[in-house]
Every structure is written in structure tokens, then in C-alpha cells.
Amino acid sequence: VAFAVAINTARNSLPDLVAGQAIEHPWLGIAGVDVTPALAEQLGLSVDEGVYVTLVSQGSPADDASLQGAFRSEAAASASDTIEPGGDVILSADGDAVSSIDELATYLDLNHKPGDSVELRILRDGEEMSVQAQLAQWPG
Questions:
Q1: Is there a contact between 27 and 132 (Cβ–Cβ < 8 Å)?
Q2: pLDDT for 98-108, tens place per residue?
């Protein structure tokens, strides 16, 4: 999720880092933005909270779970100066509501490890549905 590690996640990993242990972080493979009332109005969303998926990394757990991003490629996302309609909105993870990309990343990092499955409640084209994603290790 996203391309940054939340400060609480980094703080929780510090003892393992100091001990020389490898740190494993679950990876969903999306880029996204926080849904705000203004973004919801702009995109015609029926919710004003959640994580709007802008990009799904090819071959990622999100891709395997058929999540849809607003952009189909990094090049398309980079070339645009607006947020396009058509992306999924992640509403919850394992039944816990998420209202920001940081909240989703922190939830996954504190509650899951690579290989775990997470149930995501999403909004797609006005319909709510659930998808399962098997998290992977952060690439790199």
C-alpha cells in the first residue's frame, strides 16, 4: 500500500532492525488517495471516506484480487494532472473501516504479514463488494 511506511510501523520495527533481523512488511500493491467530500463530489462517489485506488501494480496482490485503479499504468498516472474516475474505493479491511491510505497501511502492517489474506470491502461503480487479497512481501 502506498509508497511510504507509517511512523508507528517504523517505530515498531526498530528493535528488530537494531538486532539485525530482516523486516517483513505486507504489500498490497496499490497507490491511492484519501477520499474527501470534495473528491467524492468530483468523482461522483456515493461515499465521502475511504481509500480511492489510483493505480494497481501489475502482478501485485491487488492485481491478483482484481482491484481496479483509476489509471491503468504509471505512465498514464504521471501524464495526468487530475484524478480520473473509475477506481475502486477501499472502505474497510477485515471489517475495520479505513478512511485514509495511512490508516490502511498501518492496519495491514500491524495486523498482517506477507502471505496473509485480507478481506477488503470496496465500492466499485456504485456497488459494494468484498474481495480477498493475499498479501506479499514488499518488493525490493
A1: no
A2: 999 999 999 99
> Strand 26-27 to strand 117-124: parallel, antiparallel, or no bridges (unpaired)?
unpaired
Q: Give CA angle at 85 (3, 99), nearest 5°.
A: 50
In 65-100, alpha helices (H): 74-79
Q: Which three cell numbers stand for residue 47?
A: 461515499
C-alpha cell at 24: 517483513
Of the pLDDT bands very low, low, confident and very high (cuts 50, 70, 90), residue 14 is low
Query: What distance lies between CA 27 and its chain's CA centroid?
Result: 9
Q: Which residue has the cell 483509476?
A: 70
Residue 47 · residue 91 · CB < 8 Å: yes
Count of Cβ atoms closer than 10 Å to residue 59 Cβ: 11
Threshold 0.90, pTM exceeds: no
**Greatest alpha-carbon span in the chain:** 49
